Amino acid sequence: MANRTLQQMIRRKPIDQIEDAPESGKLARTLGLWQLTAIGVGGIIGAGIFSLAGAVANEKAGPGVLISFLIAGIASAAAAFSYAEFAGLIPRAGSAYTYGYAVLGEFTGWAIGWDLLLEYTAIVAVVAIGISGYFNDLLGFMNVDLPVWMMGAPGTEPKGSGLADGSYKVNLFAALLCLLIAYVLNLGMKNAARFETALVYLKVGIVLLVIVVGVFKINAGNYSPFLPFGLSGAFTGAATVFFAVFGYDAMSTAAEESKDARKHMPKAIIYSLAISMVLYVLACLVLTGMVDYKDINPEAAFSSAFADVGLKTIGAIIAVGAILGVLTVLFTFMMGATRVWFSMSRDGLLPGWFAKTHATRHVPTRITWILGAGSALIAGFLPIAEAAELTNIGILLAFIVVCVAVIVLRYKQPDLPREFRTPGMPVVPIIGVVFSVWLITFLQWQTWLRFALWFLLGTLVYFAYSRRHSLLNRSKNPSSGN
């Protein structure tokens, strides 16, 4: 009995059969290279450039925030190369879940997939809460008053606001944002991608506006001292901004909706990270050159910086652009969560009812609405700090699994046809593993506790349902695989 259970846990999905999905369970291939790249850029550039850059510069690194982003970018690239190799090899929905399942076994794939469901959904909620804060400030600027009860989650009333505890009942705007993104995703990937691409162009345009206009307001004296907190401050900042330089992982879940996934997905992963890193570096140079790092507003760095140098109109444009642009992060990560859940259901690890796609739009509508409602509840009723504690650890573990899996598969099956090959094997993937492990040490014990509870629940689901209903359980040899 124990031996059979172990065989079930380590059985692997044969790579040469991994695209054999029934027609009723397939997604429509509608995305081209630049639509995929836009989805990746949309997931990477968000709160990182509009909020994190200023906070890290002000509190941890000073002008050395540039080094923080470069370190984080190099570490993220190590994992991105591994994702790119798998994306060209296994053009199927699911990303790290699918890759782990194919190389390291069913339980490893299940564990990563189960954790990413929570992580991606929580990221959607956290970003929605953040956008709602900008929205409330913008309404205040326009002298528009909304009912107090709908302005925030219970217990989040600002200090000094005169509001009693319990005045806030729900963050209605954040909850509605989550439902809006679910609606957009259910329009079909072709239409949804147009929406995403338009917002990405807007967001990139705002960042370019920051760079082009801001470069003329740079005071070179603001770069000194360049490392006021020492090199250690830049490294600490890298641990913070690392969470602003992934997003391609969620984008890679759309492999099955790419017109030519084997060729386009690896390029889209690399292009999206490269474009985002160039914009991050240039924006950081402008920000810390315009304003002394000690005077940077951690919450609205760029809009405040332009206001401080007499360009209030540009600052207001940036604030509006930040609200609209960050919507792309919601899109990318909700899409990622739905595609992971879809893949797990299609593989039999979760009920197949969830894997049913719309007859004409060919998207998993049931899953999308469930995740939209779940993220709306988190965004509406949890403070941002508590919601944020649900994120981060799962994505880092996914990076570790993908980097290890690409090494294992390269040495076990070196002759598989790969459109893209991770350079510097095995050093580059090992760098990705080491950096991810290092970042995990920065996480608080509460994050580990939540992860342990979610993992325990997932383990119970796996042994009670998934291992018996897995499609591979119907094989005559449960341990079969590559």
Keyword list:
single chain, 482 residues, mainly alpha, disordered C terminus
Number of separate helices: 19
Low-confidence stretches: 476-482
Rg, nearest Å: 22 Å
- Biggest β-sheet strands, sense, barrel: none
State the end-to-end distance. 23 Å
N to C succession of SSEs: HHHHHHHHHHHHHHHHHHH
Find the structural class using helix and strand composition. mainly alpha
Q: What portion of the residues fall into strands of 2 or more residues?
A: under 5%
- Tell me, rounded to a whole number, the average pLDDT: 86
Number of strands: 0
- What is the helix content? 55-70%
Net shape? globular
Question: How does this model look, in words?
Answer:
The chain is mainly alpha-helical. Helices cover 65% and strands 0% of the residues. It has helices at 2-10, 33-44, 47-61, 65-89, 96-103, 106-141, 172-185, 189-214, 230-241, 248-251, 261-290, 301-308, 312-325, 327-346, 365-381, 384-388, 393-412, 427-440, 445-469. α6 (106-141) packs antiparallel against α17 and α17 runs antiparallel to α18. The longest helix is centred in the N-terminal third of the chain and has 36 residues, at 106-141. It is globular, with a radius of gyration of 22 Å. Residues 476-482 have low confidence and may be disordered.
